[in-house]
Specification:
The complex is a heterotrimer of chains A (about 100), B (about 500) and C (about 500).
Chain A (H helix, E strand, L loop, with lengths): L8 H10 L9 H15 L23 E2 L9 H5 L5 E2 L2 E5 L6
Helix pairs in contact in A: 1-2
Chain B lengths: L1 H6 L2 H10 L4 H19 L2 E4 L1 H16 L11 E5 L26 H8 L3 E6 L33 H8 L5 E5 L6 H7 L2 E4 L20 E5 L2 H11 L17 H7 L6 E5 L9 H16 L3 E5 L7 H16 L21 H12 L2 H14 L5 H24 L2 E5 L15 H5 L6 H6 L3 E8 L6 E7 L6 H18 L11
Parallel strand pairs in B: 2-3, 2-4, 7-8, 7-9
Antiparallel strand pairs in B: 1-3, 4-6, 5-6, 5-10, 9-11, 10-11
Helix pairs in contact in B: 3-4, 8-9, 8-17, 9-17, 11-13, 11-14
Chain C lengths: L11 H7 L1 E11 L36 E2 H13 L3 E2 L6 E4 L9 E4 L6 E12 L2 E16 L3 E5 L11 E5 L6 E7 L9 H19 L11 E10 L10 E6 L2 H20 L7 E6 L4 E7 L9 E2 L10 H9 L5 H12 L3 H9 L3 H9 L4 H18 L11 H13 L4 H12 L5 H8 L7 H14 L1 H8 L6 H11 L6 H12 L4
Parallel strand pairs in C: 12-13
Antiparallel strand pairs in C: 1-10, 1-11, 3-6, 4-5, 4-15, 6-7, 7-10, 8-9, 11-12, 13-14
Helix pairs in contact in C: 3-4, 8-9, 8-10, 10-11, 13-15, 13-16, 15-16
The chains are: A alpha+beta (about 100), B alpha/beta (about 500), C alpha+beta (about 500).
Chain lengths: ~100, ~500, ~500
């Protein structure tokens, strides 16, 4: 039987940062608790002896699906920008970027 | 006349429109009126496109008048799950983060429906980003089960199933990642099919778990589902995971409806304890009927199925944590918190996502982020993908012994709104019988087999077939449906309370 | 955050005396395909913002990728040209991180299953002991997609720091990139900067020869990141490395690596530790400044891309591509050098000025190799440098140069006149023949006018005429000079001299 993994507030805060979700501090413990319970349940996958079993990432055995290098299907700038929260000079406007590229 | 129109099957509707007995506009109007009359209580729809629907119906009538050949479903109204893009029409995926978004393009499924003259009435409610089994995680309020408005209609596609069950549309499109077409069908007394993975294009289907998602038909009869399946299925070059095999003759199979000599396997691990008594009873009765129709019943064992749920709740969150990263307030959807202080885009992204995503969505994103993290990948995501292989092997072994497999679709009938909201794990258990088919990529159908004696609520039976053998679902389903219809004397939905 | 005072550095020869440099080079090549990596949007340079986008490369909900067949073929050809093994089965993977220029907030790339791996490229570098060949190991070459372009508004420099907001154009998002990563490059010693430059130069030639990219560093279709670390000796374990970005020319590669070595040496000498970080190269000031701290385990949460199926290149097809590869540039160069019979030094000069193909073409059109080299490596390279353009951008072709040389060979032009014709072609006055006609530059070949000019010159300087008659043949030079001047250089000096001496009845 696998141990129930424990998830701390700090773990949740770290995950939220990786996932770019600004969680209110008061919700961290609640999520930590729920995640721990769920992880405990899903951890049972490790009970299955599967060392020599290959992983399946695609349900059906398709390979080599390609597209010819021919132009098709672009949108107009208007269509592309139509859903944008903020637009300037036909480009998507965003507040200042902190991280370097 | 109006009330008659809404009780017709899709096949009957199409026939009457093609013959000129009734106009497509009359049909559309009748359904729009029905929506107006009942949807305030059912809340199946998030958006009703009155203008678009009438225009589409009118186009069908004009084509018919001009002597053009109509497609088999021309003029038939349909409800589209709000996870599929429809150009210029609000598409929210049941989430606040997409409030007001009108896509600049049609999903391939949407385009095929339009080309077939199907009249899209509007977009239906769903659990946010298709995550849930009750439609209670919609940011726009839950949908109510037409059988009992205090109960859930299933999820994530509760809106589509409820619309069909409430006679707001004879057809709907749903999507199924772990049972989101089949389980709502079971608890609403309707038919729902998840085709073979790759059989129906996912281009324009907002992705939840890319290796599990599939769009499929929702209807009141097996033949209707087959007709819709034939319209939407088929290779799509825009979807690289779409199969190139020709669409099987699902309509022919539905009309054949003959199980004589077929081997039907009951999966030992799906059923038994944990399943409501009334559910098991109706299931067993249906098995007896199938035997009476000439099928041979065998018992099969799929020993890794008890791990399917766990593996699923690792694979899905992992893929969705990545699929949902694009919702960041930059190119579409809402943007939150820009005017507060002098935030950076990083902060605005964080505020937008926190405000725009609901609890369950956030939970799964974090679970997925964890499972893919450096150091955890092998134990969680990696291991889950191996369990997936084992489940595929279980199915392969089972299909060596039987032509189709059957089980109850869901462990219980429709539970009450609010009953399982505080317990995510309890909610996840609703999918225990439907998940294995998604994991293996094989097709599955749910059709109603009766009402549970203890609560008078619908029970669904699930049929599963090997990958690419979707026609077997329709053959067996139609046979069972016909036999049940004879037993009952009328379609099961006639038993539902009038709204 | 840039420091206000420049970092300390150690003189280069001292760096070499105390440390052993180790390099790693990452090159990104933008493929010149018609469409993007995962969608059918065009890839034209310089289009209006957000006009070459679609649901896929905008990352709109519901969109799905479809792999560009030509990009896959180019990736394989690049791998083959770099002596790599080609994967028999591989997948795309998602590299997950958030950034406004990333439409999906993940990049569809390749992780532990690159399409090409384990190759090498031999590069030649001039050392104190003569030409030396270094083998640069290639770890992998894989396919991925480019990001959109952000332009930062409101700040003083147009860079991120100090900007008020940014504007994003996704035309570039999704353009196919091939990332080529070397194995650690060891044993270069003091030639580390030169080896790096030679590697990228050679790589660029190969890519150009394959026709897969226009490989213009100044336009961003070839990008290089340089990783550098120092260790006390070749036996020590590897030091901490830094990654330097914004290295936009071959010259910058050499300079940036040299600088980074001197900077790191100063830190280590002072007993400090090198921070594993990304640094930014400044071509104008010749230094690197600190960028983002690069943690070794940047958690990208890679997993196989579920919206794409695996690639399993047919071995027969791979062999066909291999057989169709253009001649390896090094082999091609060696062949030409032998054909022309020139020294390593002279050949290097041709290669370094980027004139190889131009010279070869000119020779193929009939010119003598020495003449072709004289023009392209000498005069024309000088002019190109003055104008700060590439040789190929000058408005003159090998055909033009070959024609000029042909005219010289016929005696219709002499060296000075030929130079004027070249000038005329560059000025857009037309083909060499047109310039000759328009400017009246032909060598006077008719003896008549020459004799007239000779007589006139002799009449002007009777004492020189006497000198020549009396046997001081050297004095003929002055008369020849006068005739050349009178004919505006359009005489053949040798012919003038011969006629003069004949006229005076004098022999050499």
């Amino acid at each position: 039987m696998s141990e129930t993994p424990s998830i701390s507030r700090e773990d949740v805060a770290h995950l939220a940062k990786l996932a770019r979700i600004d969680l209110p501090p008061e919700s961290l413990d609640h999520y930590a608790e729920q995640l721990a319970v769920i992880l405990g349940a899903v951890a049972k996958v490790s009970e299955v002896a599967a060392d020599d079993v290959p992983a399946t990432s695609h349900p059906l055995p398709l390979v080599n699906v390609f597209r010819e290098d021919v132009v098709r299907g672009s949108l107009t700038a208007e269509e592309a920008l139509s859903g944008a929260p903020s637009v300037e000079s036909d480009r998507f406007r965003v507040p200042r970027i902190l991280d370097e590229e | 006349m109006t009330s008659e129109l809404i009780t017709l099957t899709a096949a009957e509707t199409a026939r009457k429109v093609a013959s000129g007995e009734v106009s497509a506009v009359e049909v559309a109007t009748a359904h729009l009126d029905r929506i107006g009359a009942v949807d305030e209580r059912v809340h199946a729809f998030l958006y009703v496109d009155t203008e678009g629907a009438l225009a589409a119906a009118d186009a069908v009538d004009k084509a018919r008048a001009a002597g053009e050949q109509l497609s088999p479903l021309a003029g038939v109204p349909l409800a589209l799950k709000d996870v599929m893009t429809q150009k210029g029409i609000p598409t929210t995926c049941g989430s606040k983060i997409l409030e007001g978004w009108r896509p600049p393009y049609d999903a391939t499924v949407t385009a095929r429906l339009k080309a077939a003259g199907v009249v899209i009435l509007g977009k239906t409610n769903m659990d946010e980003f298709a995550m849930g089994s009750s439609t209670e995680h919609s940011a726009y309020g839950p949908t109510h089960n037409p059988w009992d408005l205090d109960r859930i209609p299933g999820g994530s596609g509760g809106g589509s199933a409820a619309a069909v069950a409430a006679f707001e549309a004879p057809l709907a499109i749903g999507t199924d990642t772990g049972g989101s077409i089949r389980q709502p069908a079971a608890v609403t007394g309707t038919v729902g099919v998840k085709p073979t993975y790759g059989a129906v294009s996912r281009y324009g289907l907002v992705a939840l778990a890319s290796s599990l998602d599939q769009a499929g038909p929702c209807s009141r009869t097996v033949l209707d589902a087959a007709l819709l399946h034939a319209v939407i299925a088929g290779h799509d070059p825009m979807d690289s995971t779409s199969v190139t095999d020709p669409v099987p003759d699902v309509v022919g199979a539905a009309m054949r409806a003959d199980v004589k000599g077929m081997k039907i396997g009951i999966v030992r691990e799906l059923g038994g304890d944990g399943y409501q008594a009334g559910v098991r009873q109706r299931f067993d009765e249906a098995v007896t009927i199938l035997e009476g129709l000439g099928a041979e019943i065998v018992e099969v064992s799929c020993p890794h199925f008890p791990y399917a749920l766990a593996a699923y709740y690792l694979i899905l969150p992992s893929e969705c944590s990545s699929n949902l990263a694009k919702f960041d307030g930059v190119r579409f959807g809402i943007r939150v918190g820009e005017g507060d202080g002098d935030p950076s885009i990083e902060q605005v992204m964080g505020r937008t996502r926190a405000a725009g995503f609901g609890d369950e969505t956030i939970r799964r994103i974090m679970l997925g982020t964890y499972a893919l993290s450096a150091g955890y990948y092998d134990a969680y995501y990696g291991q889950a993908q191996k369990v997936r292989t084992l489940i595929q092997r279980d199915f392969a072994a089972a299909f060596a012994q039987a032509d189709v497999l059957i089980s109850p679709t869901a462990p219980t009938t429709a539970f009450k709104l609010g009953e399982k909201l505080d317990d995510p794990l309890a909610m996840y258990l609703n999918d225990v019988a439907t998940i294995p088919a998604n994991m293996a990529g094989i097709p599955g159908m749910s059709l109603p087999v009766g009402l549970a004696p203890e609560d008078g609520l619908p029970v669904g039976l699930q049929i599963m077939a090997p990958a690419l053998a979707d026609e077997r679902l329709y053959n067996v389903g139609a046979a069972l449906e016909a036999a049940l219809l004879q037993t009952w004397g009328h379609p099961i939905l006639q038993e539902a309370p009038s709204l | 955050m840039s420091t206000s005072t420049a970092d300390a550095v150690v003189p280069y020869d001292e760096v070499i005396a105390e440390f052993d440099p180790v390099l790693g080079l990452e090159v990104h090549v933008e493929l010149g395909t018609n469409t993007k990596m995962f969608c059918g949007c065009p890839t034209e340079f310089g289009a209006e913002p957000n006009t070459q986008v679609c649901p896929v490369c905008l990352g709109l909900p519901g969109s799905m990728p479809a792999v560009n067949a030509t990009a896959v073929e180019s990736a394989i050809r690049i791998g083959l040209a770099l002596n790599c093994k080609i994967a028999t089965w591989c997948r795309f993977a998602r590299k997950n991180y958030f950034y406004p220029d990333m439409p999906k907030n993940f990049q569809t790339s390749q992780y532990d299953e690159p399409i090409c791996y384990d190759g090498y490229l031999d590069v030649d570098v001039e050392t104190d002991e003569g030409m030396k060949t270094f083998r640069v190991g290639i770890e992998r070459a894989h396919m991925e997609e480019d990001t959109g372009k952000t332009s930062h508004q409101g700040g003083a420099t147009g860079r991120i720091h100090g900007a008020d907001y940014s504007l994003v154009d996704y035309n570039r998002a999704g353009i196919p990139l091939i990332e080529i990563v070397t194995k650690t490059v060891e044993g270069t010693g003091k030639y580390a900067p030169e080896v790096a430059r030679a590697y990228v130069t050679a790589l660029r030639e190969i890519l150009r020869g394959l026709g897969v990219s226009d490989v213009k560093m100044e336009q961003g279709s070839l990008r290089c990141d340089a990783n550098v670390s120092l260790r006390p000796s070749p036996d020590s374990k590897l030091g901490t490395r830094t990654e330097t970005k914004n290295v936009n020319s071959l010259r910058s590669i050499e300079r940036a690596i040299r600088y980074e070595m001197t900077r790191q040496a100063a830190v280590l000498r002072a007993g400090g530790t090198i921070i594993q970080e990304t640094r930014h190269w400044h071509e104008d000031t010749g230094i690197t400044t600190s960028g983002r701290e690069k943690s070794d385990a940047e958690d990208y949460r890679y997993f196989p891309e579920p919206d794409l199926v695996p690639i399993a290149p047919d071995p027969a097809w791979v062999e066909k591509l291999r057989s169709e590869l253009p001649e390896n540039p090094a082999v091609y160069q060696a062949r030409l050098q032998a054909a022309w019979g020139i020294s390593d030094f002279d050949m290097m000069a041709v290669v370094r000025s980027g004139a190889l193909d131009l010279v070869a073409e000119t020779v193929a059109l009939g010119a003598d190799q020495a003449a072709a080299r004289k023009w392209w490596v000498g005069e024309l390279t000088r002019i190109a440098n003055d104008r700060a353009v590439e040789l190929t951008e000058l408005p003159i072709t090998p055909a033009d140069v070959a024609r000029v040389e042909a005219l010289v060979g016929e005696g219709a032009l002499n060296d000075k006149l030929a130079r004027q014709v070249i000038e005329g072609v560059l000025a857009g006055e037309g083909s060499p023949d047109e310039v000759v006609a328009a400017r009246g530059l032909a060598v006077v070949s008719d003896d008549g006018p020459l004799l007239e000019a000779i007589d006139a010159a002799l009449a002007e300087s009777p004492e020189v005429a006497e000198k020549i008659r009396s046997g001081k043949v050297a004095a003929a030079g002055a008369i020849v000079g006068a005739v050349m001047k009178a004919t505006r250089g359009q005489a053949d000096a040798g012919r003038v001299r011969d006629l003069l001496l004949e006229r005076l009845g004098v022999s050499e």
